[in-house]
Amino acid sequence: MKIIVDAFGGDHAPLEIIKGAMLAVEEYGIDVILTGDEKQISECVRQNNIELKNTEIVHTSGKIDMCDDARAVLKEKADSSMGVGFKLLSEGKGDAFVSAGNTGAITVGATFLAKRIKGVKRPCIASVMPSADNPILLMDCGANAECRAEFLYQFGFMGSLYMKNILKVENPKVALANNGTEETKGTSVVKEAYELMKNADYNFVGNIEGRQIPFGDADVVVADGFAGNLILKTYEGVAKVLMNGIKDIFKKNLFSKLCALGVMGGINDMKKQFDYKEYGGAVLLGVKKPVVKAHGSADARTFKNAIKQAVWFLDNNLIDEIEKAFSKENE
Fold it and tell me: Rounded to 10 degrees, what is the CA torsion of 86, 87, 89, 94?
């Protein structure tokens, strides 16, 4: 299994990306292709005493910046670390591609270079998120700010297949993010999507409000990319505020510090449960090759876990399952 890694995507590239890739090599027994400036990668490795194992470096010129137009990955910056990574993926020189770079450019590269699965109207970004019980899947998280009803219907279809094949949920509950649970609530697009989804082959359970999402009332939460990204970022922010607040409470005085000793095990378990770093990033569903968008602020552990998502994809043949399902749906 060979994973292509954009060594210059993300806030902490290339050091944390390289470290994360080497952690993945050790843990998952994979091979890695690092794309980026070979001189800078070699210097980073030397300065930080990193031992590269099962790793090939493919030299590229430049990188995609966060402020770049998304389509730059196809033309002006096709020779960048991301552009070359997608090229290698499309040529079959690697099995999956992982980047912590520009979300728009990753979406464009996945759509036009990795190519859409036949029948899929729009690929979407799907993020595994924690809940009070089990992990849930939120989609779309930013690829499509505006969606038609049929896109949302398809997101539910792909999300259901992800939960069945990757997280082994037998009959995943799919819900539509809305400002009320009533069938009549929401925008015209959301109401139209509701009508399509209630007749779908997957287990559609209706609308879900934002406050229900952390309780795991649905296994798959479907939204357009604008609303989904807001839900994702708010979710992460609130979790961080709560954990910092708990930490401050126990640091107030000697008595509170002593109390902390008695409950620290439970607090650490809860912190791990709601830590976004456990999942590392989001997958692009609807394209022919596994593409993973790692968190832009990814450190080594976070990036290693993003690579883990690519490994899950390949181990469970998820793309084959989606292709089969859409072929049947089209018939």
Answer: -120
Whole-angstrom Cα distance, residue 235 to residue 224? Answer: 16
pTM of the model: 0.89
Dihedral sign for Cα atoms in the order 179, 173, 118, 68 = positive
- Residue 284: left if φ>0, alpha if ψ -120 to 50, beta else—which one? beta
Residue 118 CB neighbours (<10 A): 10
Indicate the range of 13-27, 75-89, 121-135, 237-251 predicted with least confidence.
Answer: 237-251
Quickly state the pLDDT bin for 280 (edges 50, 70, 90).
confident
Can you list the positions of beta strands (E) in the chain? 2-6, 31-36, 55-59, 96-99, 124-129, 136-139, 173-177, 203-208, 220-222, 281-285, 291-294
Q: Residue 139: helix, strand or coil by DSSP? A: strand
d(CA 250, CA 248): 6
